[in-house]
Amino acid sequence: MSFSTKERDRRHAKLRADMESENLDILVVYGNSGRQGPRTGNLAYVSNFRSFSGQQVLVFPLKGEPVLFVGVENQRIEANRGGWIEDVRCEAMTPVPTQTSDYLKEISDSGKRIGISTLSIIPFNWFQQFQDQIPAKEWVDAGDMVWKPRLVQSAEEIEMSRHAALLGDRIWDRIREFACEGVTELDIRAEMDKVIIPEGGTENFNMMGLASMAGGGEAPWGYVIPQTKRAMKNGDALLLEISPRVEGYWNQLVRVLCLGPAEQWLIDAHDVVRAARDASLEYLKPGEPMVGLASAMDDVFKAKGFEVWPFGLVHITGLDLTDYMITPKSTGTIEPGMVITVHPMYQLGPDRQIFWGESYLVTDSGFELLNRCSDELACL
């Protein structure tokens, strides 16, 4: 799977039209290989280059060809192999901000307005160096110019999201076959990677919580942590936050599996998260306020006497696992083409939570469930 030149031209034409509208002469797009909030995917969106290490800067002018600056040679090779930027530069023994500054000094002057994507993640000393060394009329934060168009996916992007969802489903199906007494968290993680890697998944941000169900749940139940050598045993429940990534596009699926009969407290808790999911879906349609998705979940939890877990209830998913976190304070509206993860979570007690979730595509008339696996509490 790969993007067409038509997709490239669509994105670049929209970006240049917005730059012209905002009177920006140059856009500087910072990138890295981390997950530092919803702007990390901006570089990939403009360049089709997904960083696997280090930090990069893309200089995207209103007129002329873009130039991508990377810090190491293997980044340059990879950017040339699969990216959209023809001019990729890597100057030996020269830091990326210095390479960028030297180039911008050539193409900028005191009358130019330069946008930067984005101040929320670029290292402060890099931005300070740019301001000190590069002639410009003004520097402005233009991260939203790249980020906002990302929230609504094109037909080609949706196909990437569909494939990521398919891998999420396959991982869940495989772990239901694989899980048994004696297998460890690390064994389960390895099995998940066996599913995703042959199918084109480039990353797999998975967390899991394995704990006993006895006595209301071993605290902190449901808390997802890096995998260990802890082995499954009868009476355990396994919470899986499954997040495969295909061509940069994420999916998120969260399910719970029990080894042996489920304890009643877990059955009840699972019913509550599905009820919260159902309430939220009433608001998952074009034109509805985003806040309705989170508020509907909160209402269900409060009616049951529970406190909402305040993070990650609903989020738009794409080039970042969380492109945008929908909260009770969100002001936007839902649009066709958005991929939204409905992710109900609430407090079972001090330091104890239950998570659950799946992803949806917003259509012209409503929504399409991307994850097709069963929503039942699985008991082996």
Describe the structure.
By secondary structure, the protein is an alpha+beta fold. It folds into two domains: 146 residues, Creatine Amidinohydrolase, Chain A, domain 1 (3-Layer(aba) Sandwich); 225 residues, Creatinase/methionine aminopeptidase superfamily (Creatine Amidinohydrolase). Helices cover 34% and strands 23% of the residues. It is built from ten helices and 21 strands. The strands form five sheets. A six-stranded mixed beta sheet has the order 4-3-2-1-5-6, sandwiched between helices. It has a five-stranded antiparallel beta sheet with strand order 15-14-16-19-20, with helices on both faces. It has a four-stranded mixed beta sheet with strand order 8-9-12-21. Strand 19 and strand 20 form a beta hairpin. It is elongated and about 70 Å long. The model has no long low-confidence stretch (mean pLDDT 93).
Q: What is this structure's SSE topology?
A:
Elements: H1 5-21, E1 26-32, H2 42-47, E2 55-61, E3 67-69, H3 73-82, E4 87-89, H4 96-107, E5 113-117, H5 124-133, E6 138-141, H6 143-150, H7 155-178, H8 185-196, E7 201-204, E8 207-212, E9 236-242, E10 244-246, E11 249-250, E12 253-258, H9 264-281, H10 291-303, E13 307-308, E14 314-316, E15 324-326, E16 339-342, E17 345-349, E18 352-355, E19 358-362, E20 367-369, E21 378-379
Parallel strand pairs: 1-5, 3-4, 5-6, 12-21
Antiparallel strand pairs: 1-2, 2-3, 7-10, 8-9, 9-12, 10-11, 13-17, 14-15, 14-16, 16-19, 17-18, 19-20
